[in-house]
Write a structure and sequence with these properties.
Helices cover 0% and strands 51% of the residues. The chain is mainly β and 119 residues long. The radius of gyration is 13 Å and the shape is globular.
């Protein structure tokens, strides 16, 4: 059973940056596709980015966010630059055997970390 723990969320002003981390235990993260999702109040969980041998991004974050992996640390990162108030959400990392933007196809989830971007 893979456990995922996110960290790095917080409050930042528009235009600022944050880096989220997601560290896995109980399994080898490199065996899985890793994804980041986010959920704002009253909205459905939405895809942000995923990484296997390549990377995929939602159009809303392309050019601003970067997903990366450090297999030696069993960790996946989400570097978020040029943040906007509409990026405010709880951010979740996920791991699964399928590279997809569908949250229902991921097997393991972290508890989430809050990102708040003020205007």
């Amino acid at each position: 059973q893979v456990q995922l723990v996110e960290s790095g969320g917080g409050l930042v002003r528009a235009g600022g940056s944050l880096r989220l981390s997601c560290t896995a235990s109980g399994g080898t993260l490199s065996r899985y596709s890793a994804g980041w999702f986010r959920q704002a109040p009253g909205k459905e969980r939405e895809f942000v980015a995923s990484a296997t041998w390549t990377t995929y991004y939602a159009d809303s974050v392309k050019g601003r966010f970067t997903i990366s992996r450090d297999n030696a640390k069993n960790t996946v990162y989400l570097q978020m630059n040029s943040l906007k108030p509409e990026d405010t959400a709880v951010y979740y990392c996920a791991a699964g055997l399928t590279t997809t933007d569908r949250p229902d196809l991921y097997d393991y989830w972290g508890q989430g970390t809050q990102v708040t971007v003020s205007s």
